[in-house]
Amino acid sequence: MSEIQKKQIAILGSTGSIGTQALEVLAHNDDLFEIYAITANNNVDLLIEQARKFQPEMVAIGNEIHYQKLKKELSDLPIKVFAGIESIAQVAEMQPVDIVLTAMVGYSGLKPTINAIKAGKKIALANKETLVVAGELICELALENNSAIIPVDSEHSAIFQCLAGEGNNPVEKLILTASGGPFRTKSIHELETVTSAQALKHPNWDMGAKITIDSASMMNKGFEIIEAKWLFGVTPEQIQVVVHPQSIIHSMVQFADGSIKAQLGMPDMKLPIQYAFTYPERLKTNFPRFNFDLCSQFTFEQPDLERFRNLAFAYYAMDKGGNMPCILNAANEIVVAEFLKDRIGFLQMSDIIENAMAKAEFIAKPTYDDYVKTDALVRILTKELIK
Ligand SMILES: NC(=O)C1=CN([C@@H]2O[C@H](COP(=O)(O)OP(=O)(O)OC[C@H]3O[C@@H](n4cnc5c(N)ncnc54)[C@H](OP(=O)(O)O)[C@@H]3O)[C@@H](O)[C@H]2O)C=CC1
Ligand SMILES: CC(=O)[C@@H](O)[C@H](O)COP(=O)(O)O
Ligand SMILES: [Mn+2]
């Protein structure tokens, strides 16, 4: 019997929350998948451990200061070692790779994702900032290069799963659920004094620091409406956000006949990660099952755009288009980094983003170079606004 050709996987950001869970999923399915490449930025020790365990063809580390250590520690193994952000983008386009999981955080994911798309790879997309910054360009490139983008983000995976088998049946609206984050019930007055340590305690999901702060400020949901627009080709009016604090319904689709389909499950990213790798098939898992006996109520609320202004900014940026979502993202990356160091307050994050959006140069039809320039300039502008 001929051996099944295993799918070759590149994980960009293997040391992070999504990356480590993806390695777990792939380790359970090593009859179907082989890890071709893994990458990180600073966590060289974990990258070495992962490389020794999974023995990929290549590893790349963004921060070049770790190159010597990485090379030395793997010198007894036939693993190619690279360093520098450009090498991560090169890993993404390697010929044997079938699927690239983009699990880097923030704007840093853009260039490697573009390279992978240009090389016609299937993209398992976790790095939502790529679509926030340059959604139009990414969709054009994906179409030109016949590169499929499969969402990993739980809400978008839920929508993708609801759409499976629906062919061209018209969609009326997408209903994105939001947990509301750790500050859902806090008053605006209380929000003035919340700390990053409090913001890092997400009620339902265990995630990397940046996305956890975005969830607390609801910028995550703002990014997700923009991500949904590009992934599913809907208009802003067709995207509704509903706060569902239990995070069991991961999102819903309402079709033209009024019927609503939902995807439910435990808040565990391993399921959407695995689905992105195996789509259109589903593999048996032993992930914990949701049990209706243990949860007697699903509740729903409207998002409060006055306390969580970031969501309103994202709707504005999506409507405005051009480089406005890129401006929103760059300003957000800077304020989140400052808030994590407790150098600015929680509510200040939105004030500074609003200011940056008002002051940055708007470009209606940006090229890739315009995005690069916008990102760099808005980072400088935002730091000045913070001062
Ligand atoms: N975590 C989750 O449950 C979810 C995450 N997502 C999205 O997935 C992406 C990853 O999130 P998450 O796993 O939480 O993030 P983490 O911060 O946990 O991990 C980020 C990964 O990217 C690497 N990385 C960070 N910066 C750079 C850089 N400049 N160059 C190269 N590599 C870099 C990190 O390396 P190192 O460890 O060396 O710093 C790490 O491997 C984000 O876009 C997030 O929005 C979406 C839905 C859910
Ligand atoms: C797991 C995942 O997809 C996150 O984006 C999650 O949705 C964050 O939760 P909230 O942004 O809804 O709080
Ligand atoms: Mn999400």
From TrEMBL:
The keyword Transmembrane helix does not apply. The keyword Ribosomal protein does not apply. Its cofactor is Mg(2+); Mn(2+). Keywords: Isomerase, Isoprene biosynthesis, Magnesium, Manganese, Metal-binding, NADP, Oxidoreductase. SUPFAM superfamilies: 1-deoxy-D-xylulose-5-phosphate reductoisomerase, C-terminal domain, Glyceraldehyde-3-phosphate dehydrogenase-like, C-terminal domain, NAD(P)-binding Rossmann-fold domains. Its EC number is 1.1.1.267. One of its GO terms (molecular function) is 1-deoxy-D-xylulose-5-phosphate reductoisomerase activity. NADPH binds at T15, G16, S17, I18, N43, N127, E129, G208. Residues 9-135 form the 1-deoxy-D-xylulose 5-phosphate reductoisomerase N-terminal domain. Mn(2+) binds at D153, E155, E224. One of its GO terms (biological process) is isopentenyl diphosphate biosynthetic process, methylerythritol 4-phosphate pathway involved in terpenoid biosynthetic process. Residues 264-379 form the DXP reductoisomerase C-terminal domain. Residues 149-232 form the 1-deoxy-D-xylulose 5-phosphate reductoisomerase C-terminal domain. Gene3D superfamilies: 1.10.1740.10, NAD(P)-binding Rossmann-like Domain. 1-deoxy-D-xylulose 5-phosphate binds at K128, S154, E155, S179, H202, S215, N220, K221, E224. It catalyses: 2-C-methyl-D-erythritol 4-phosphate + NADP(+) = 1-deoxy-D-xylulose 5-phosphate + NADPH + H(+). It holds the Pfam family DXP_reductoisom. Pathway: Isoprenoid biosynthesis; isopentenyl diphosphate biosynthesis via DXP pathway; isopentenyl diphosphate from 1-deoxy-D-xylulose 5-phosphate: step 1/6. NCBIfam families: Dxr, PRK12464.1. Belongs to the DXR family. Catalyzes the NADPH-dependent rearrangement and reduction of 1-deoxy-D-xylulose-5-phosphate (DXP) to 2-C-methyl-D-erythritol 4-phosphate (MEP). HAMAP family: DXP_reductoisom. This is 1-deoxy-D-xylulose 5-phosphate reductoisomerase. It comes from Paludibacter propionicigenes (strain DSM 17365 / JCM 13257 / WB4). The lineage of its organism: Bacteria, Pseudomonadati, Bacteroidota, Bacteroidia, Bacteroidales.
